[in-house]
Structure formats: structure tokens, C-alpha cells
Amino acid sequence: MPLVTCSSAAISRGARNVSSGDPLPTSRRVPIVERPVLFGLLDGGLDTRVTVVIAPAGSGKTFLVRSWLDARGRPGQGAWVSVERGERDPQRFWSAVVNEVSRADVPGARVEGIAPAPGFNAEGVTSRFLAELASLREGLVIVIDDLHEIKSAEILSQLGYFLDHVSSRVHVVLVSRHDPQLGLHRRRLEGELTEVRADHLRFTLGESRELLAAAGITLSEDGLSLLHSRTEGWVAGLRLAALSIAAHRDPERFVAEFSGSERTVAEYLIAEVLDSLSPDIRKLLLRTSILDRVNGGLGDLLTGDSGTERHLSALAETGGFVIPLDARGEWFRFHHLFADLLAAELRHSEAEAVPGLHLAAARWHADHGDILEAVGHALAAGDPDLVASLLVEHYFSLMLDGRQATARALVDSAARRWASPELAVVLAADELIDGSLDQAAAQLALAARHAGEVPEDRRQRFEMMLYVTRLSLARRVGDLQSVLEATQPAAPFPELPSIEDISLQADVRALMLMNLGIVEVWSGRGEDGERHLIAAGDIARQIGRPYLQASCQAHRAQAISWRSFPLARPVAEEALAVAAKYGLRGDPVSGTALVVLGSCMVASGQLGGAAEAFRLADEALRPDLEPAIGFKLQFGHGIISLVNANYPEAIESFLEAERLGKSLVTSSPLALHARCAMLYAVLLGGDNIFVRAALEELTEAERGTGEVREVVAARLLAEGDAHAALAVLEPTVAERTKVHHGLVLIRSLLLHAKARYMINDDAAARSAVERALDLAETDELILPFLWVGSSELLERHHRHQTAHGAFLKILRDALSGRGLADGRRQPGPSLVDVSETELRVLRYLPTNLTAAGIASEISVSVNTIKTHMRSIYMKLGAHSRTQAVEYARDLGLVGRTAR
Amino acid sequence: MVKPAARPVYEIRVRGVLGGTLLGAFPALSGVAQGGDTVLTGELADQAALHGVLCQIESLGLELIALHQVCLP
Questions:
Q1: For residue B33, which residues of chain A lie inside 8 Å, CB to CB?
Q2: In the beta sheet, which residues pair with residue A170?
Q3: Do A58 and B61 make contact, defined as CB atoms within 8 angstroms?
Q4: What are the two backbone dihedrals, phi and then psi, of residue A82, each rounded to the nearest 5 degrees?
Q5: Exposed (0-12), middle (13-18) or buried (19+): which is B51, by Cβ within 10 Å?
Q6: What is the distance in angstroms between the Cα of A63 and the nearest Cα belonging to chain B?
Q7: Cβ of B61 and A266 within 8 Å?
Q8: Which of A262, A270, A340 lies nearest to residue B17, judging by beta carbons?
Q9: How far B30 CA lies from chain A's nearest CA (Å)?
Q10: How far is A507 from A14, CA to CA, in rounded Å?
Q11: Which of A657, A701, A710, A702 is nearest to A683 (CA)?
Q12: Window A:37-66, CB contacts with B under 8 Å
């Protein structure tokens, strides 16, 4: 078969089970009618961008397009995507498209698949996908079948954008029951649209004859023409008629009676078809019509008989209304029209059985891990307890699977009917994803108030969800205190026996530890935070959740960056590597890692690289949802503008950073950080008066901080009052411990030196510069020297007077705009072929971690690390670690910052 | 409590005579055969409910001929 089919069963089992891609078996006995005229129309359509095949249910749309692709017969040139019923998840839709195209294996295009993640960055994914398709060397047909099932305006608008920008080598065929909102009229006017509509699809008299003949039925010309006019060439009608006639003793009489009836074609024929079947099969079809897909076990459960699989296989062979979903013949679905007609008949003839059937289906799906289907059936069965307990148990996993939109639709529908503390906590978790913090807090309060109503056997899971959701909320607002007070569990989290058995609980556990870690980091409990992030990352790796894994690494890098940029950098790069590997390049998780990477680059004076990292982070992040990271990003933008003497932009960025800092409950240090930077930018811009007034407004405690003193001193220096500046700086300079890399201390020392030179105390000035160099060299901190504008200080600091000759040279280069200031290395492909794992090891070589230390950082054995190190030395032609680092730096394989 | 507003009544004409099975698919509406067509009549809560009915008509492969509101709320 020339096209790769995408079975809906495989997709609906969740993105973790990627569909097998096995071609569907073509049924031999389903009558096939060649339609050369329509094939010609579709062939001609390849000259335009888009073909739409739009007609009512049962018009033979899918069949036509599939047989046309088969007939084109060039394998690997078609990707087939069947939209799931009621599709709401952009992530699932685009994953299906991207994964099908990547499987189609067309020359030229390297299309990467997508790993599931909550909060889908459709823009990032589609633009990457478009770029990948742009390199196609041959034509590719992408078929999107059942387009009308898309129930999300968001997906349609993304698809519209995709159609507007996709490579001209790609032709898209859209199959739908009605006109989609995709600018068809404009495309028609531009001559970029080919249309196959209901009238085209109607069978001619000749085609009807052929169809019946292929089913082994012969009718008189009169009978044929009567049937054709009664069905008006509607393909489903003709196929249903063929099924009924085949079971009828007198075909001519059947046709005459059918023509004489006023009932609708579908209803008349479905009744006839059901009548012609054995009671067993009739029961099977009716009772399983409530399912989106059926297999032997599920069918047997609903009918109370055995033999479902055998019956369905036989029906798939003959009717064309039962469609196999996998090559092994395990799963089937009904043609949607057929299923809807059967369901109508079930409600008519066995209405009282329907809730029980849904309940049985819900339990079966829950036992088999198909949670969304289970919840859907539990809702249809009207069982609030089952709905609530399923959602509480699985909500986080669904979110991690990228199924949030579908889950939300189910949650909303449940919340419209029932109220319970369990639904309230699910609603809270749901609100948090889109950032409605107040709503989330309100739902959480409601859930906590009524916690006593949750039945004993479900209490533990409920409490767990309450705890994790509170942590998520705390993470957003940076408020650890309230979380610790409200949620410090009396009993510790239950220990989990083994991760393989209970991956769902492991999801929750990893998520909980991650959120706890993030909150701790932002609340000044960095050590606990890092420990929890490492534990969460380990679980994430074991259970195969790359999103969580990358997220933990990114936040850990963030935590480390408060104490050491050189140690943070490889962790951030590692997070980016994991994210890139799993198609999460445009995801907020990459944004976090990019912010950290950019901060590390800024600190070491690589402003060009940093600006690029921040630009990418701007695209990936949603600062409203992650104010803490957003703060860091805006602050980084501000620094770059400040150093480039673009003061108005620097002021704007610092003000935005301050706003984000204030939105965190534990805000004061961050907001003050931003305020001081902003005032410093104003000062450099020349507005001393404003700065003086603004400083007056600060509280006494704030005025006592090193940061504020630094700004005051800078103002005094600008006004020429060196003695006053020295007095203000005194408490900071006398400080022996270094806080936050000693950035404030280094800058204060440099200001102090400037003041000393002003009063001709050169010896004291030099000693202050020497102390600044001493503090900065460990982490190769270049930023403070750029910040204070220290060219003159460094020029006066002679090489023979310092113990930091090499570092002094690097600094001078950076400050004179040579070398580092614009990034001595640009990220890009390397000339040396270092493997991905070796690169990971290489990034740690500039740190002072031993081989054992690196091994524990990236969770492999010491021996593996040593093997990689040997291989790295060989490839680089290095004889020592120092040499390897030096060569790797020259090649741009590792950053400049670390020693 | 807000007094429930009177709901709009719709008449929806589809082609063919609907039997019990298909009428059962529209529990909120009552159907009457009229000249080879069926007219489905009933109160629908809002636009969303109306679209739900139209969706059902599409799913069952029925042909929609006419739709109008017979009584304003």
C-alpha cells in the first residue's frame, strides 16, 4: 500500500503508544468501483495547493481518496491522518499530522516527531514543521480525513496558517462533511482550490450497476434504475441496499417495496439490513454502537456472548461498514454514519439498556487505561462518582499526555451536572494550566472545605491531588509559606513499591516533587529545591516523561545559576538537548532553559549569544504563567540594553521585570533587584534628579541593602562627590561573605576603586580592583565590569601588578568590544564529530567536577564517563582535560564562562 | 432565582418520512410527516442546542430542507 495509515485506535490510546503504522488489510470482498473521472479530478488537483472533498455522510469520500492514493501507487508519498471524533486537542491533532508525515519518509524532509507535553506551543511546532517540509525534494500528499470532527477553532486557525505557508511540493486533501472555516472562498478565487462535492460523488447509473455486480447482484434494468433514483446515487444507500438485497430472496420485489416507501433511505435500509442479520450479530451491532471502537473483549462484555471478533472480521470483509483499525484484526470501528444509525436504533428499541452499556464500557476502558473514553462513558451513564474518581486519579497524566482540551470538555460537562469536592480540585488544576490563579484558588478552597464529603476509599487520592494542585498554585505565585502551612502532610507521601507497576502514581509523584522543588528554589531554599528537582527528574526519566525530565533540569539549572553560572550552564544545555530530542524546542520548558543559558552567557559577557537565547525564550515562554522565569528573562533583556547603552529600552525591561517580580508573593528581593537596575539605567541616561527622588521613596530597610547603596554611590560619583560615595559603599566593601556570586560586591568594589582614583588614592584603588578580579575570576564573571564601565580602571591596572593577568586580558578584550562582547563562539555545527553523549560529558569538563561527579550529574557509571573522556581527548587531539577544554572552546563546543 | 425565559420554538424540515428510530434521535422534538417530508418541532434551550440538532441531522445523513423559528422568546 502506498500510504501510511494512521489508525484512530492507536492515536486514541494516547500519544505514548505511537500507532504501529501497519498498513490496514484491504478487504477483498467489499465491492470496489473504479472512478476514473473523479481520479482525473483529483490528479488535476495536484496542481493546486488544496483539494477539498466535501459531501454528506455516506457519500464515499474516504473510499474515493484512499483508492485514488492506492492507484497512484508510489509508496511513501502520502500521509493519512484520520481526525479523531470530536477532536479538541491541538497537540494530538498536530502530533498525528507530524508523526504521519515523518513516517511517510519522503526524500529531503527530516521531520521530527513530537513528544506529549502539557501546554502545547502550536506556533512553535507548526513553524518548525513548515521549515522541515520546505526542504522536501519530491511531492507529498497529506490527507486529513474527517476534518469536520475538529471541534476547536484554534486547530482550524492553525491549519489555515499551515495551508497558507506550506511548501508548494505539499498538496493537502481535506475530507469533510461540511465546508470548513479555512478561507475556501479566497482559495477558490486564487485558483488554489480543487473541489469534489456531493454531486461529483453521486454514483451514476453505470457505477451503481458496477457496484451491485461486484457484490454479486444482478437486477433488471428497470429495477436498477428504480434503485438508483430512490437512493439518488447516494453511495451508503447503494451499499446498504446491496447488503439487504444479498440476503433477500426476491431482489426485484425488494427494490419495488423500497421505492414505494416514503421513509428515509437510511432508516429503511438500516432496518432491512438489521432484519437480514442473525439475532446475535444484530445485538452485537446495536450494543457496540455506543463505542468509538470495539474489540473482541469489549464486544463480548456488552453482548454477554462470545464471538465478537469473529463476527466483526466477517462483517469487515463484506460490508464496508465495519472498518478494521489494525493489521492484526483486533480493533474495529463502524463507519460513522452506520454507527450513528445503529445508536439511534438502540435508543429506540433498547433505551433502558443504554446507561448500563455505557457503565460497562466505562469500567472496561478504565481497566485498560483509556481514561478519556472511560470518563466519556461514565458521563453518558450518569455516574458522578465514577467520573470524579477517574478524573482525580488521572487528571495529571492526561495533562502530561497533552490531552488537556479533551479532558477539560469532559470536566466542564461533569461540572455542569454535578458539584463535588473532587470535581472542584480537578477544576482548580485545570484553571491553573491557563493561568486563572484566582479561579484556581477559589476552587481549591471549595475542595478543601468539603473534603470530608469524599468517601473514605477515595480520600487519599483526593488529598494527593489537593496537595499537588496547591503546590502548582504556590509555584505560580512564589508562595511557599502558605503551602507549607496548609499542606505539610501529617503522614509522609506513601512510598511507592515500584515504578513500573504504577506509572500513573509516578506521574503524580514526579510532578509533585518538581513543583515542590521549584517553589523551594524561589523561596530561598535552594538546597532542598535542587534535591527535589533531581529526584523528580530521575522518576521522569524512568517513566519516560521527557517533558518532565527537561523541565526538572531547566529549573535545576535555574536553581544552580543563583550560586554558579559555570555549573548551571551544562545543566541548562542538557535540558535543551532533551527538549530538542523530543520535539519540545518551542515549548515553555525550553524557554526556561534558554533564560538560564542566556543569563550564564550574559554573566560571562557573551552578549550576542545571550541576546539570541533570550529572543528564543521570548517565543517559547508565557511570562504570565511563569512570572519568576519571566522576571529573569526581562532582567536579562534589560542588562543587554544597559551594557549596549540603550538606556530607554533597559529602563522598560527592568520596569517589566519589577512588575513580574511583584506578582510573586516572595517578591521583595527580586522587585528591588529590578528597581535598582532600572534606577542605574536612568542614572546612566543622565537623569540624576529622578534617581535622587526615587531613592528617597525607598524604605529604610531597602536603603540599607548593598544594591541600593551601589546606586547611591554611582549617583554621588556622577556628581563628583567621591568621599560621600566611599562612605556609602563602606558597609558593602567591608563585607567578607559573597552573596549571589558576589555581583553586588564586585560592582561596589569597582565603584569604590573609581572613587579612590578620584581622590588620588591609587594604591587603595588598585587593591579594590585586585579584589574584584579575585572574586570575579573564579566564575569568569565579566558582566560586573561591563555594568560599571571599567575600561579605564582596567587600563590603569598593569599586568605586572596583578595575580590575574590572563583574566585581565580577557576582560580588556571584552570591554573593548573585541572578542567576547559579541560572543566569540557562535553556536553552530562543529567540525569535530563529537557524539551527543560525548558532548554532554564535554560540557562538564570545564567545571571542577570529577569523573564520578559528572557521572552522578548525568546518571551514568563512572566507567562510561571515563570512556567518553578518552574518546573526546582522542577526537580533539588533546592530552589533558585542560587541553581538551581549551580546544573544545576554540571549536565552540563548550561555553567561555567556565574555567 | 432568575425567571426562566420562554424558549424559542423551532420548526425543522428534513427530507423523507422519519420512522421511530430516527425520531428517537431527536428526543426534544416531535415529528410530523408532511408531503413526503418530516417537520420536527420543539423548544430548544439556545443556539447551542439548535446546533446540536443540526449536527445530529448531519450525522444521520438526513437532508435539511428548511429551518425557522416559530415563536420568539
A1: 262
A2: A140
A3: yes
A4: -95, 115
A5: exposed
A6: 17
A7: yes
A8: A262
A9: 14
A10: 15
A11: A710
A12: 56-58
Structure confidence at residue A458 (pLDDT):
87
A336 touches chain B (CB under 8 A): yes
Best A149, A267, A275 member to test B by mutation, with max B CBs in 10 Å, is A267
Contacts of A492 (CB under 8 A, 6+ apart): none
From A121's Cα to the closest Cα of chain B, the distance in A is 29
**What are the b/e assignments for A175-209, b being 16+ CB within 10 Å?**
bbbeebebbbeebeeeeebbbbebebbbbeeebbb
Amino acid at A632: K
Beta-bridge partners for A79: A4, A142
A90's CB contacts (< 8 A; 6+ apart) are A120, A122, A152, A154, A155, A158, A405
Contact A264 B15 (CB under 8 A): yes
Helix (H, G, I), strand (E, B) or coil at A19: coil
* Whole-angstrom distance, CA of residue A27 vs CA of residue A36: 21
- Chain A's closest residue to B35, CA to CA, is A262
Query: Which among A610, A537, A634 is positioned nearest to A579, based on CA atoms?
Result: A537
- Interface test with chain A among B17, B21, B34, by most A beta carbons within 10 Å: B21
Instruction: Extract the C-alpha cell encoding A198.
Output: 456531493
**A356, A359, A418, B16 from A382: Cα distances, Å:** 10, 8, 10, 34
- Using only C-alpha atoms, chain B has a radius of gyration, in whole angstroms, of 13
Residue recorded with cell 558576589: A742
A30, A105 Cβ separation under 8 angstroms: no
Contacts of A350 in chain B (CB under 8 A): none
Whose CA is closest to A582, among A551, A555, A558? A551
Taking the Cβ of residue A85 and every Cβ of chain B, the question of whether any pair is shorter than 8 Å is answered with no
> What's the 3-state SS for A666-707?
CCHHHHHHHHHHHHHHHHHCCCHHHHHHHHHCCCHHHHCCHH
Give bridge partners of residue A176 from the DSSP assignment. A54
What is the reported pTM? 0.75
Distance between CA atoms of residues A216 and A246, nearest Å:
8
| Ordered alpha helix ranges (H), A73-152 | 90-104, 122-134
Q: How is chain A split among helix, strand and coil, in percent rounded to 5?
A: 65, 5, 30
The verdict on B67 touching A (C-beta cutoff 8 Å) is: no
Provide ipTM, 2 decimals: 0.82
Task: Find the Cα–Cα–Cα–Cα dihedral A702, A706, A711, A712, rounded to 10°.
Answer: 80
User: Given an 8 Å threshold on Cβ–Cβ distance, is A177 in contact with B20?
Assistant: no
**Arithmetic mean of pLDDT, B33-51:** 91
Q: Averaged in consecutive runs of 10 residues, what is the pLDDT profile of chain A (899 residues)?
A: 32 32 42 84 92 92 89 72 90 89 74 72 80 86 94 92 92 94 90 93 93 89 93 91 87 91 88 89 93 93 91 82 85 90 92 95 94 95 94 89 87 92 94 81 91 88 86 76 55 40 68 86 82 93 90 94 91 91 80 94 90 89 77 94 92 92 72 93 91 91 91 93 94 76 89 94 92 89 91 82 84 68 36 66 79 78 79 72 75 56
**B46 touching A (Cβ < 8 Å):** no
The three-state secondary structure class of A142 is strand
CA pseudo-torsion sign A435, A393, A358, A416? negative
CA distance B36 to chain A (A): 6
Burial class (CB in 10 A: 0-12, 13-18, 19+), A48: middle
Q: Is some CB atom of chain A closer than 8 A to the CB atom of B49?
A: no
Q: Which residues contact A606 (CB under 8 A, 6 or more apart)?
A: A820, A823, A824, A825, A895, A896, A897
Question: DSSP character for A426?
Answer: H
User: Are A265 and A235 within 8 A, CB to CB?
Assistant: no
